[in-house]
Write a structure and sequence with these properties.
The chain is of the alpha/beta class. Helix content is 43%, strand content 18%. Strand 3 and strand 4 form a beta hairpin.
């Protein structure tokens, strides 16, 4: 088992969506590392990326291009990077990703194919159990996110060989490093509320409380009060999720990034919390 110490200075957290209006629902938080602390400097929607739009196709293409350009960054993405080992036909994670579009014609085909192969059960990956993620990658609430994340974001990045996806690939100095994260798992680890998405004042108060609690840990800070307002005022909680994603990504970088080609996650993926 080989551990790779942190050597990045810019961190991104991405709250992903496979919805038709993904450009509006995907939020991206940017942070810079200063004196062993992550300073969040921006939080914006995917539709604001160059060449993007509100629709899924344009926004996911723009997101992938954006990620490939962040060669000195580490980026956390909120969707499953793989499926349970028992359902994978390919011998490596890279081959699974590259073959994904050919194996599954649509999100529905992906979900039904996994359910058929598992005898109707919703299997979880090794990392889903260890990291306490809420759902199987092909659960009804998650399968579209898994499908479009692997097909439209990871697929082109792997085929073009422009990023290193950890821990399945060794991190190289001249490429962006990409991790799978799960805000819900991170909140569970910190024993923070999961009921913060909504338009009610009680939901906003909870978002404020979550952000306060993360800042009090002492490794994250929001740069400006106006940015903080943008994060907590987003009723869907997507902006906050992107900050939680950045926090989890930064924590993974600080603790060391592990690669082991013989572990289950070398084929299934690993969630950093």
């Amino acid at each position: 088992m080989i551990s790779f110490p942190g050597s990045r200075h810019v961190v991104y957290g991405v709250d992903f969506s496979g919805a038709n209006d993904a450009g509006r629902k995907i939020w991206i938080a940017r942070g810079i590392i200063k004196e062993d602390m992550l300073l969040i400097t921006e939080c914006f929607q995917a539709e604001d990326l160059p060449g993007s739009g509100r629709g899924r196709e344009s926004s996911l293409r723009a997101l992938g291009e954006f990620i490939s350009e962040q060669k000195e960054s580490i980026i956390g993405l909120d969707f499953p990077f793989g499926i349970p080992k028992a359902l994978v036909k390919e011998e490596s994670w890279e081959k699974f990703v590259v073959s994904f579009e050919g194996n599954y014609n649509s999100p529905g085909d992906f979900r039904m194919g996994c359910r058929s192969a598992s005898g109707g059960a919703e299997l979880k990956r090794f990392t889903d159990v260890k990291s306490k993620t809420p759902f199987s990658p092909y659960n009804l609430r998650l399968y579209r996110q898994t499908y479009f994340g692997i097909r439209d974001v990871l697929g082109p990045l792997i085929m073009n060989n422009t990023v290193c996806v950890l821990p399945m690939q060794k991190p190289l100095p001249d490429r962006a490093w990409v991790l799978e994260i799960c805000p819900a798992s991170t909140l569970k680890r910190e024993k923070l509320s999961l009921f913060y998405k909504g338009r009610g004042e009680e939901h906003r108060i909870t978002r404020v409380s979550i952000l306060d609690s993360i800042e009090k840990i002492g490794v994250l800070k929001i740069k400006e009060s106006s940015l903080r307002a943008t994060i907590v005022d987003n009723s869907g909680g997507d902006a906050l999720d992107s900050v939680i994603a950045a926090f989890a990504t930064f924590r993974a970088l600080r603790s060391g990034l592990v690669f082991d080609k013989n572990s289950p996650y070398a084929l299934e993926g690993w969630v950093y919390v």
